[in-house]
Amino acid sequence: MKKNGIKTLAVSMTTMALLLSGVGCEAKTDTDTATHITKEETATDSVETAAAEPAGTEPAVNISDSYDNTEELAARFPVVNPTPIDTQMEKNIQNRLLNGFENWNRGYETWEAWGDILYTPDSLYNVHGVKLTLKEYQSSMNAQLKSSDIQMGNFHNMIISGDWAAIRYDISTTDRQSEKSSDGSVMEFVHFKDYGDERGTRVVEGWAGTKGEDFEQVSSFQNDNEKAAQQESLDAIVHKEIPDTTDLEAKYPVTSPTPIDSDMGKKIKDVILNDFEKWNQGFDSWEKWADTYYDSSLQYHTSKDTLNLSEYKAAMKESADSTDTKRIQFDNMLISGDWAAIHYRITNEDKTTGEKTAGDVMQFLHFAQDGDQLKVIESWTK
């Protein structure tokens, strides 16, 4: 069994490097392969805007911000596992994500200028579980990019529903001093709003990465009041009681629900809720359920390993021996086609010390029909 790093899987489900984002981006290494894209390759003929500059000054950065360049950018940043994008709002979100990747790959100054278009002064971004204002977020990105060059690659998923998006994508990171490169992948959940002005669809709040060991490091960008509010929010999760009801939708509510209209989508939601219920009943109950929920040829991807079903169950048994992990509620549940992206809150209680902490998990799930049952055939978890 692949034991390296597995024990923390159920405890925090997180990565440890500081996130950087084109709407957000994470500098870390795992088994995914990123597409290497140079700044020269991204200097394309996309419709661009530049602030007017007085004669004799340095030219302003070129920003890709057209709503008409979706097809062009989608060819440069393809989605490996596409799902339906139907409404005009969903198409606008797709365009903003693609333009975000394009601008990020042109360098920090271009991305920062793009921020005035993609974000509002009140926009928030949660980096590894730390809620940052736009200025704090930009400061954290600027600090990291002084030491690393990060380029966006392909999307593996772009699940868009209502005014929400969940994305999973490749990055390539190069240390500026050593020139050593590494490939990685990122998960994000982003809430958009159509503001109705000329800039249209913009980010309200984003979540990139989950609470991890770098929580204190990223928190250094917050002021004292923000840190206190953050801790209060975590304490609320720690002390939250799971309702005593057989209505699983009420028991495990979705804070920001999005439309789930198809029969397939409703079945996916039902089995996800049942997975939460079996998990919270204890390891023995969940282990039996796992054979129903997961396909026998399951591939379960963590930040460090890819596990088969037997290895995954063994890893969960090892973790359950030391830590009682409860799944509390969903932030998001986006379902499109035969894919789901979920972001949810957990509590972890150390069985030796009794210490209880709050965390969160991001997961992308690919489902398939197996006779009269719906099963997960592949999962990616942070």
TrEMBL record:
<protein>
    <submittedName>
        <fullName>Nuclear transport factor 2 family protein</fullName>
    </submittedName>
</protein>
<feature type="signal peptide">
    <location>
        <begin position="1"/>
        <end position="27"/>
    </location>
</feature>
<feature type="region of interest" description="Disordered">
    <location>
        <begin position="38"/>
        <end position="63"/>
    </location>
</feature>
<feature type="compositionally biased region" description="Low complexity">
    <location>
        <begin position="48"/>
        <end position="60"/>
    </location>
</feature>
<dbReference type="InterPro" id="IPR032710">
    <property type="entry name" value="NTF2-like_dom_sf"/>
</dbReference>
<keyword id="KW-0732">Signal</keyword>
